[in-house]
Every structure is written in structure tokens, then in C-alpha cells.
Amino acid sequence: MDTLFNQDYKGHLQTAGLTSAEAARRLLQYGPNEVAEPKHHPFLAFLKRYWGPMPWLLEIAAVLALLVGHITEALIIVVLLTINAVIGSVQSNSAARSVRMLKQNLQVQLPVLRDGVWQDIAARELVPGDVITLSLGCIVPADASVLKGTGDVDLSSLTGESLPKTVGSGDLVPSGSVVVRGKLQARVDATGENTTYGKTISLVRDAQPRSHQQDLLFEIVRIMMYVGVAASGVVGIYALITGKSLLSIASLVVTFLMGAVPVALPAVLSIVQAAGATTLSHEGVLVTRLDSVEDAASIDVFCLDKTGTLTKNQLEVQTLIPLTAASTPDEIKQLAAISCDQTGSEPIDAACLKLAVSQDLNAHQIAFSPFDPVTKCTEARVRFSDGQELTLVKGAPRVILARCTQLSPDEQAHILNLVGKLSHKGLRAILLASKTGTTMPLQPVGLLGLADPPREDASRLIGQLQALQIRCVMLTGDDRAIAQEIAAQVGIGSTIIRASDLRKLSHTEQLSTVETADGFAEVLPEDKHRIVSLLQENGHSVGMTGDGVNDAPALRQAELGCAVEGASDIARSSASAVLTTPGLIGLVRAVTESRRAYQRMLTWVINKVTKVIETVVLFTLAYFLTGSMPITLLGMSLLVFANDFATMSIATDNVKATNSPNAWQLRSLVAAASGLGALFALEDLLIWVLSTTVFGLDQNAACTLVVFALVVNSQIRILCVRERNHFWASRPGIGMLVVALLTTALFLGMVLFGWIVPAVSCGAVLTTGVICLVGGIGIDFAKVALFHAFRVK
């Protein structure tokens, strides 16, 4: 067994790794090799859903209802609050799941030198100073320095670089990278959150994706609640002046609050999101964060990872340049293929093996030397069927040219000029040379230009996103030349900025730069996260795609973080959506479906604002004109179910996606809906007046008729405002029609037969229905004019 000599963090020399006692002490000092996950008690999280502006108002309404003796109404309010709390709790747990999934990659065992003996120890128990063995295929569990051995490590999931990096003694190997060649012995330098991988996980954990759509929805709701509270205050003061009792005033306030508070908003929001997520799941997009379904509607910038997302993450030979008159492209292909490790374990060798013109190479290897980081080349001795032997050397052009001693300076300069042209195109140049004897100098055969090519559907995806008026920005860990070439091929643009140049700028300059750049090269995980955050700070809604560890923080931060098919567990758990089928068309499907979800929520908001204005105006005018409320507290409770919870059918409505990003125009929306609400209120007020003057109903029966009118108008209003044009311009969803018919039929039976509420004559009910229907058609024409004037679309 080898004895390794290394130095620990305290400067003491050790020759056999750490002792178990020292490892235990450091484990206490540095903590486990993992990222701490914040703990949240599920029951306390559930109780928090009863805390906030909307729950407070409903809770106040429930207390007031109890004070005035309306126990049934108070129970109804409590049930509504609980329904919302349950639905909300079921739908939100993605952040904790993301961190748990990320940590699973560290839960492996590997050989560790403890007490002079190699032992298999869990990666979670590694501490700084441990000596470990990293074998082929091993995921590096902690930041480490190589003590012995050489090999290649794949950094693509960390940095986005397409090619593995060769490492040897003294080199740093970051956690999260993968050993793809060789075997290494290394000393652990950092564990847990102090590692490269751990810092990335911390960025993911601490990323704060905000639901802008929900923020705006709750802002609209807040305005409506202010309207309800203000109106109840005005009417309450008037009632107090006119000598009404405090209990009747309390009942009046509860009625106003129940009319203004959007009781079903959390439930409707969750159902709309879940419906969109279900639709996307059938189209190869798995949604893991429900609020992203609606947030993606406003996305106007999409950040696209290059390696593995826009490209295949597989090296291919893009260009062949013969360097001798006798060389032909087919001969170079055959020689390149036979010069490789035939297992294809090396990325460059795998690319060269694909060049074989036929399976019969007419030659076989008799000796092979794998890539050596010192000589920077591979070497193969091959024998052809006619007995001729040839040595084939493949690798870094400058190193191999130094061994081509028969070339003149001009010939070497010409070849280096060709290498420069390949590099300018974003291709990695590999020189293939040969010799016939052991003492003969090498002769150049050809240059191979390798690159990670774009996916077949990448250009089409970019075109479709741009057609949806979404700006595309490419992010990659590769160098600028490669980034520019890929960006040009897929149609993104040519303004590519180095991440290192972006870091040198002031914050103001960074904000300006992200507005004009088509892409960023040589980026680190924190760069991607920063770029997404800068775009959001500029007011953009941002989408992000990726497949690796380096993409995870940005995927988490974006409004829509989309992990591509085949992405790492880290990327999938951090993203808000995951493509489950090959290709990138799922991104377009996610955007279009989110825009449909936006249209459904827009319908709900317009309906809600219209309803609040309708009830507030009706109650206020009726009370000032007649000195009494046109609806009882029980009637208001029934109306909440008939209106707010019937609107859940909006989640399945038949809607069309817009061709541009959606943005909530708060003032225009409220203004247009307020106009509609006022018209509906005048119609309801007419029925309130007719109920006593024409139909001769007493106070209780008149209130019942008004409840029926409000219920019918609720169904008409939903069918009216769901379409931005006239209501007949598109067909409603079957579910919406069924709910509207069932709700109307239920309340028709209640009113005619006196279930729960006082009965009303058939003639009065029929007349009310006709007034609502005719009035609804007239209001629809007013709606089209209002939507056009205030640009609601």
C-alpha cells in the first residue's frame, strides 16, 4: 500500500492520511460534507396560511357574523378559509425537494485513507485533510488537490465546457466533476458549503424565484378589498347616523367584506396552474413549480445554456483539411479512426471513430498509447493487411509540429495559420501525423476541426421563440469563439460578451450590458445566476434552460427554469419544469400553455373586479335609496359559493394564447372592469326596485329575488368576460357551460320552491331572468368598447 505524504490545515505533517480520532474532531469542526437544509414544521406552515391580509378580513367577517348571531355564515367562512389552506399546502413544497435532491449526489462511498488503511467511507463523513481515491466514473464528492496520478475530469455540468480537463499532481479537482479517465489520489481541501458544488447548492437554496403574476393578482385583490372596506365604512357611518343598531351595522359590514374578499382566489389559482401543468405533462413537459405555469406567460427573455441544450454535448469532427497532396478526406477519416482507442471512451476518440468510412479498416492496432498530458497526444502503431506498419500520432498541433522536423518554417506557419482559422470558427484543432519507421520524423497528414454541434431542432426553437417575441440569450462556459460560432448557427446573434468582462463592470454598466448582449461566454454558475438576476432587475421576466450543476442556481432563480431531457438530478430538481422527451420544442409548448393560463386568470380577475364593483355599487346605492340592504348575510354566503367557487370552471376554459408576452395592465384592467361592474349594478338595482313596486314582494322575498339576479348575472358575466371580443367569438369550455347551467338550475329551484330562502313567484323569477339575459347582451357590446378603449387583451 502506498504511503502518501501531505500536510493538513494546521501545518502538521502526516504520512498516512488522518487518524479516526482526528477525522472525528474535524467532523465536529467543519460539519458533515453536505449543505444544511432549512427545516420547516409542516403543521406550522399550514397554520401560516390563516395569516395575511385576505385571511384577516375573512376572519374578521367570521367573528362579526358570530357577534350578530349568524353561526351558519361564520362556519361557511371558516370552511372557505380551510379549503384554501389545504389546497395551498398541497401545492407548495418544491424548494425543500430541490435541496434534498441536490444533496443525494453527495451520498456516495469511496476509498479514504484512515489510520493508514484504505476504508470505504460515506462522502458525507469526509473532512478537510482526508486522502481519497478517485476512480474512473467517480463523481468527486469534495474539492480536492491531486497528490498522485493523472486523468481527465469532466467539468461540463459545472462550467459548461465541452471537453474534459486533464489533471495531474498539484491540480485542483472541484466537487461535482466526474473522472472520465485515469485514477487519482487526492487530498480533500474543502467540504460541504465551502466546496464548488456546495456553493452552487447554496445559490440554489437561497435563490428567490418570485411569482410576478401572483404579486399582481394580489395587488388587484388588495385594491378590491380597499374598495369594499371603504364602501362598508361609508354605509356603516350612514347607518349609524340614521340610528341603526350596532348589530345591524356589523351584519352590514360582514356582507360588504364577503362581497369584496376573493375567497376562492388561492383555490382558483392552484387549479388553473394544475390544469396547465397537466396539459403540459401530456406534451412532454413536467412542471415541478406550479406558479411557473402562469409566470412564463410574461417571459420576454430566454437564457439558453449551450452545452447539452442548444448543442448535443457530443464532439463531432466538423472539418477535415488534408495537409499532403496524397491525402484524401476518406484516407484521413480511416487513419483517424484506426489511431484511436477503439473503446471510444475518450470524447475525441469517440468523434474520430465515427469517421470510419466502413467497418473494415483494412488495418489493426498492434500498440496504443493513450493521451499523455505531458506529450499532449495519443500514439498508435498499426499494421495494414499488406504487412506495412505505420505510427499514427494525434493531438495538439503545436506539440506535434515540433516533432515534424522535416517541415520548413513556412510549411509550419501555414499549418498554424489553418489552426488559427479553425479556432476562429470555434473549432478545436487536432493534428494527425504519421511515420513509417521508428527513427523517421513525423509527417502531417491532416487537420481535424472538432466541435459540439447544435441540436437539429435548435435553430427551429430559436425561430419559434423569436416569433413569440421572446429575446434569446446564450450562456456557455466555452470560450468566446465557440460561443459566437454556435450563436450564429442557431440564429441568436453575434454580440457575445465574456463573463470575466461583465464582472469588471459597475452594477449600472452590467444592467446596461445584459440588455444588448446576445450571449455570454466563459461563464461560471454564479455568472448565470447573476445574469438572470440582472435581467429581472431590469424588469424582464426570464426563462432559463440547462442540464447541469452550473445551471442549477439560474434555473431556480428564473420565472421559468426548464431542465432539458437527460439533465442531471440537480438541474431537474432546481428547475420549475423538466422536458421529458428529446428536443427543445417543449419550451415553446411551456410558453404557449402559460399564456393560455394567463388568459384564464385574466378572465377570473376581470370577473372578480366586475363582481366587486357590482355588489359594492348595488349595496351602497340600494342602502342610500331605501335604507335597507338588498341581500341578507345568508344570501351573501350563498352568492359566494355561486360566484367565487363556480369560477373554478375557468381553469378548463377554451382559450387562445397571444403572440406576444403577457403583462398585467393594472389600471386599464380595473378601469374597464369597473365600468362593467357599474352597468351590472344598475341592472340589479332595477330588479331590486321592481321586486317591491311591480312584483309586490316583501323585504325577505325581494332579497331572494336579488340573490337570484346576482347568481344569474354571475354566470352571464363569466361567459361574457372570458372573451375579449363579443361572447360568441369563441366557444366556452364544456366544463364552464355545465357549471353555469347547474348553478343556475340549483338556485332556480331554491328560489321557486323556497329551499333555505323565501320562495318567489314564477312570474317574478321569469321576468328577472329575461332582464338579466337581455341586459347581459347589451353589456357585452359595452364590454367590447371598454376593452378596446383600455387595451385589455
Describe the structure.
The chain has 793 residues and is an alpha+beta fold. It has 29 helices and 25 strands. The radius of gyration is 35 Å and the shape is elongated. Mean pLDDT is 83; it is low at 1-15.
Task: Indicate the topology.
Elements: E1 6-7, E2 13-14, H1 20-30, H2 42-47, H3 53-67, H4 71-91, H5 94-104, E3 109-114, E4 117-122, E5 131-134, E6 143-148, E7 151-154, H6 156-159, E8 165-167, E9 172-173, E10 178-182, E11 184-190, H7 196-206, H8 212-241, H9 246-260, H10 265-281, E12 285-287, H11 292-295, E13 301-305, H12 306-310, E14 316-322, H13 329-338, H14 347-353, E15 363-372, E16 377-384, E17 389-395, H15 397-401, H16 409-424, E18 428-435, E19 443-451, H17 458-467, E20 471-475, H18 480-490, E21 496-498, H19 499-504, H20 507-516, E22 519-521, H21 525-537, E23 542-546, H22 552-557, E24 560-563, H23 569-574, E25 577-579, H24 585-626, H25 633-645, H26 666-693, H27 699-721, H28 734-753, H29 762-790
Parallel strand pairs: 13-20, 13-23, 20-22, 21-22, 23-24, 24-25
Antiparallel strand pairs: 1-2, 3-4, 3-5, 5-11, 6-9, 6-11, 7-8, 7-10, 12-25, 14-19, 15-16, 16-17, 17-18, 18-19
